[in-house]
Amino acid sequence: MEDSLQKEREIMKVCLLAGQIMLQSGAETYRVEDTMMRIASSYGIDHTHSYMTPTGIIFSLEDPQPMTRLNRITERTTNLQKIDQVNSLSRRISTGELSIDEAYLALQEIDRTQAIYPLWLNVLMAAVASGCFLIMFRGTWFDFIPAMLAGGIGFYCSVLLHRLVPVKFFAEFSGALMIGLSSIFFVKYGFGQALDIIIISSVMPLVPGLLITNAIRDLMAGHLVSGLSKGAEAFITSFAIGAGIAFMLSFQ
């Protein structure tokens, strides 16, 4: 009986760690629940229950003895690579390739993995994306470089301030503030022409697109609490971006 309970605890640890990594990396709620259920089923536990929000996971196993655990989610980001790695690991578990201990060690390795792209590359890609959005919004090539610079500066300030002050909405407000300031500067001194298109293009890397998409998908899948929570977070993020731009335009 003791061996059975110990095995159940180990399975619980594997399921919760897999769910935690996926939820922290930006996965949809229904995908996380399905992955945890499949892992538990692969190790011989078919009766499981889960309830999760963007800030926590409650997972329960019924056999051989009822057991419930709670994991708190304190930080959330976007890392599709980690989601893919956990999905791949789940498939290997389903085919019987990994024991419980091997799966847990592999999940710990995934969890320890840092971002594969350095900050300078993220800033560069945000700048390039801002310039491409400007062309998509029918801006002129004359405004391409100002949009790139404003988008890169705003994204860098947002990331930097989030590291100094771990308040996501303040960081996004400050990033939008810098975008507005940079865009007004470029247009005022003749380096740009269409202020509105430059600003709209530059804030696109800050827009919570994945969060909005996941909120809608969770609502469609019936996860109302998670869907509404993510929708509220996306709304407040959008409000912070808009407020930062509006604050700077008020001084123009």
From TrEMBL:
* UniProt cross-references to Pfam families, sorted A to Z: ThrE
Q: Which family does it belong to?
A: Belongs to the ThrE exporter (TC 2.A.79) family.
| Identification of the protein by name | Threonine/serine exporter family protein
Annotated coiled-coil segments of the chain: none
Membrane topology note: Multi-pass membrane protein
What keywords are annotated for this sequence in UniProt?
Cell membrane, Membrane, Transmembrane, Transmembrane helix
The main place the protein resides is membrane
- Domain Threonine/serine exporter-like N-terminal, by residue range, is 14-251
Membrane-crossing ranges are 119-138, 144-162, 169-191, 197-220, 232-251
Annotated compartments: Cell membrane
Which InterPro entries does the entry mention?
Answer: ThrE-like_N, ThrE_Dicarb/AminoAcid_Exp
Report the domain of life of the source organism.
Answer: Bacteria
